[in-house]
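pinned: reference chain
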Amino acid sequence: MRSFTLVVLAVAVLGAQSGTLLDDAFTASRLDLGKWDLLSDSGAAISTGSGLKTSFNGSTALSQMRAFTLYQFSGDFDVQVDFSLGSGWNSPIPVSAGGSLIGAGLMVFQDDPNWIEIFRSRFANTEGFTFASRADDLAGTSKTRFFASSAGSGSLRIVSNAGSYHFSFNTGNGWVELGSVAAFKGPVRIALQTAKFIPSVSFATTLSNFQVNSGVTDYKTYQLPASMQKRASYQIGGQFINEAIRRWNAGFLNYRPMEQLAAQGMTMARGCMTTGSDPELASTPSDQWAKLGWKNSYWSSREMVAQLFKDAMAAGMRINACFYLGDGPSDSWNQVAPVAWKGLSVDDTATRIEQYTFETTSWLQSQGIKVDLYDPGNEILYGMMNFLPGDRAAAPPPGVNPTESVSYMESAVWPAEAKFLRAAIRGIRRADPGARVALHVEGNVGPGTDQVPGFFKAMQTFGVPYDVASISLPYPNYTDLSGHTAQSYMQRLDNLVNRIAALGKPVFIAETAYPAAAAPGLLPPMSGFPYSDAGQAGFWSTLLRWSSGNPNIVGLTWFYPEWFPGISGNSNTPVIDVLGFFSDPVTLRPAARAMNENLPAAPCSFTLTAKGTPPAAVGGSGSAAVSAPYWCRWTATSEVPWIVLDAGGSGMGDGTLGLSFSPNTSGISRSGVVAVAGQKIAFNQSPVPPAVSGIAPIFSSSTTIQPGSWVSIYGASLSSGTTVWDGKPLSNGTNPTTLGDISSVTFNGKPGYLWLVSPLQINVQAPDDLPAGVVTVVVNSAAGSPGFTVTVGAVGPSLSLLDNKHVAGVVLTPDGSGAYGGGTYDLVGPVGAFAYKTRPVKPGEYLILYGVGFGATNPAVPAGRPFSGVAVTSNPVTFTIGGVPVAPAFAAMVSTGLYQFNLLVPSGIGSGERPVVATVSGANTPLAVVNIQ
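pinned: its structure tokens
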């Protein structure tokens, strides 16, 4: 051994930080895991009560115990611990055995391999105190020193002062410094160690009275809140998969867990998708998926997860979209690149990732899915895409554990991973510029806890623009939680979250779960939380109180909350079967009801702003912008039929409404309102200029009108409203030529007589003395005077119609059975076709038809004057029904411009809808039909 001079330690004691919070005499019945991380292996038996005792048996060569302080020290500090060597320490050690015993060790630990220790040692031929270091920054300095001693008890001490560590021991004669080195940069933890590196030796040793004489740590006594805290931004989520898988299980088609869980207070759904896309699912409506039969390619494909998200949104939940970035599931240490990407360089892999996240994010948006939080990758603490320690990344040096070595991960694994994550986030934000992105890692609660904040700090150093730090919590089938109480477990979780949050990002708990029943594969339960409905509920309630009470945490997600025993249809998921919140397809376990304890709805505020110019009079498209917090869901409505929501009618957070405006043919300006969550915005639209689009005999499609005949003028914005003549002549004895806001309708400058004016139609009687040929018709109003032309003939016969083909006729009922006129008549027409009662006419019944444009009468009836009586047509009028001639028994004008025809319906014309044609002066009426029975 190298010789050196021992120095009596003479360092001033620093001001102590509340030592009673951190000191530990190890007199409790178990080690306080709210202060310590415990590692023991290969038969090292640990007990407390009168110190921290380790008992080693001789059956293994390598066996050790290490207890790390959960908290970290920064700057100067002074710590010490007592030791007492027990039975077996002095057992003979064969010279040929090699190795050593560590009866007590006190260590400064930054990560593996950066640690420095003083320990009570024993070798084959000597024993004493040893100083040892694996610190990388001790190059050129002796990394081991030894002082011979046979003391069976004493104390070990480490003092950090003015940038140096001082390692010393005391066996009753004062402190003696064994080694001094430059201090690590950054926070460190203190570890206690006992170990056996020699076979066939059994011994026991005890550490006691751990004391923090001075120093500053990040230790804070944690107190679990009495109830869930009311925080608006805090979300309770579930990671779902069976919500979509159930479509292949016909017995569970009525299973709607998201709706039930949302009613209990769950507000977010998390789903992870593979890089797979299944065309069969894409082309089949989701309510028909059960008919397809199950294929493994369906599992977590983008179509399947997208449907899960649609179900969640329908239940009112927000969305956390996770990209596995693999053909199958990706989780801790299982990070396999898609087959098509394997073997690509780091840069080429990054290019593929960016394109994939861009395309997938764009596709989700095309499906109407509004994502609140994106996770590029799942549990990526130790790498991704096969760039893992010893896989495509360099293997760690001998003796270095990558799960405890931040320095190794920073140099060998995380640089490539940072490049992948930057690429993934670029792709997401190309498609969704306002996207919030989380990096999701495993949330270790052991000595590797330092890896988690180390990862997020490294990602910031490497320029990864993430928004949220997301972690998984340990599952009881992978981590023995039996040594924890609720206090100790929440203490360390709180410590971990606060270290992450100190980097400036909020924390989201992406995965956690606890069983409601025992199952094969589970480790022992946590103290106070048995594997039962009550134990699960108690654990979940405790987690909710802890996470909602920590302002650094924005949400907490339960893994597979919708699961229940037997739903998977096989027996290979016993652990998953007992993790869910359901005991059967419809029955919630007690844990589900813990979610609504004191949890208010998150407050939402909305603003609605019109974009672009006001809607044009002729209609067109437009849009409005919705602004809201990202967690706030909304649905837009239009309060008028002329504004239609084309796209973006519902969403969450900021969004854009696509609008369509109908032409304003009303003749006046109008205003319509679109509303979102009580916020309203009015769109004002001017009318289109008045225009005439056509003129025809009233109730007809004929293109020729007759002088003195009633005609309809069709168009847009003809009038600002609807006005109907009351039938009373003016004081001069004529019918009106002005009505509503129409000052006149002229035919070659001569006014017609108005019956009805409206924005889309005017009914008017043409003057008597119009010449044959083309006549100009002008509609005159304050809004404009549009004109049109129409052909005038000596006759322009048209029959009055109920619609565009059925004649408007009366069937006389002399027997008093009619539906109208006190039983004197029925209306002809198909049964049930109109809002009023009609029926076919029978052969042998009298049918009365009406029309306009049948020519001169005797006596003549002047236009624009009241008339009652009978004016027989001057020219013969003939009819055919179903091609059979029918001579009218009566043909005359019975009121101004209106003709009446009485026909006896003959037999032999068939049944159903039969064509009716009237002819006068060689002109035929347009095609019409009458219903014959």
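why pinned: Residues 1-18 have pLDDT under 50 and may be disordered. The two ends are 125 Å apart (CA to CA).
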